[in-house]
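Fill in residues.
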């Protein structure tokens, strides 16, 4: 599976209203971000002063060796974990000083999540799983947007199936649709294709990329897989808690070369 042989559509031009202030290019920003686990001699500095901007309307992949800090970075950016020092701004909001209550609200209303293990509710149908975040937040379902997400995810004929009646790839596409249906500022995807065969992985990645190109979504994903990362607009490389490089318009080949250089 590679993205090299599939044409990479360029994001559609979006006309800017005349007097509107341009949206800031970064949807999430970390400055001098430090995360230390434990204390004293056994302390681990998982993030050692990270400065990064995640570009709005792009799919960003985070790669690096095991233990380099990928999950920690994603969790700190998503308000799932608290930074030790430094700042994180997500969609204009400084989250490092937020209370637990504010963070929960931010995650529920402004962020979308896709996990390796799908995390669907087994007793609900596909469409009920997709609209669950809106139901919990007591928000109205925008039927037109729901229809466009369902069409993009290619599950129109599986909407009334329960997760046990769906393949892994189909379940993960339901999880992606669930993450997108509330139009979050940013979707965080943690190894979204880690449990999938290459064909299903390609379907999920194609959908995540299309959500950016066609729906204007911003997505960040942690992955170990160069083929998966080749679907991104930009790949960030971490090593020992530092941001050590990046690639724009990556291919599986250039990503492999960069990983080899990292050792
Ligand atoms: N809860 C924790 N308590 C103590 N140390 C932790 C904790 N979580 C992560 N670490 C340590 O922080 C460092 C970074 O871990 P992290 O999980 O962010 O790396 P990663 O790049 O996502 O790794 P992997 O690819 O194996 O998932 C590692 O040394 C890890 O052992």
């Amino acid at each position: 599976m590679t993205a090299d042989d599939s044409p990479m559509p360029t994001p559609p031009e979006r006309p800017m209203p005349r007097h509107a202030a341009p949206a800031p290019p970064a949807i999430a920003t970390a400055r001098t971000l430090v995360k230390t686990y434990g204390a004293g001699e056994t302390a681990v500095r998982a993030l050692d002063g990270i400065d990064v901007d995640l570009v709005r309307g792009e799919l960003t992949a985070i790669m690096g060796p095991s233990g380099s800090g990928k999950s920690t970075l994603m969790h700190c950016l998503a308000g799932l974990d608290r930074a030790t020092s430094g700042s994180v701004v997500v969609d204009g909001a400084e989250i490092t000083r937020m209370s637990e209550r504010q963070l929960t609200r931010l995650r529920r209303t402004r962020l979308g999540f896709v996990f390796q293990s799908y995390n669907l509710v087994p007793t609900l149908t596909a469409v009920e799983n997709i609209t669950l975040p809106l139901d919990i937040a007591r928000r109205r379902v925008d039927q037109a947007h729901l229809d466009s997400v369902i069409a993009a995810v290619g599950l129109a004929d599986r909407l009334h199936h329960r997760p046990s009646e769906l393949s892994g790839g189909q379940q993960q596409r339901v999880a992606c649709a669930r993450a997108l249906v509330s139009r979050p500022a940013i979707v965080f995807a943690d190894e979204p294709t880690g449990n999938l065969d290459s064909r299903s992985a390609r379907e999920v990645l194609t959908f995540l990329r299309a959500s950016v190109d066609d729906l204007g979504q911003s997505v960040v994903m942690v992955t170990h897989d160069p083929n998966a990362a080749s679907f991104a607009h930009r790949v960030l490389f971490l090593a020992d808690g530092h941001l050590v490089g990046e690639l724009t318009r990556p291919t599986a080949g250039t990503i492999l070369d960069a990983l080899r250089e990292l050792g």
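Residues 1-14 have pLDDT under 50 and may be disordered.
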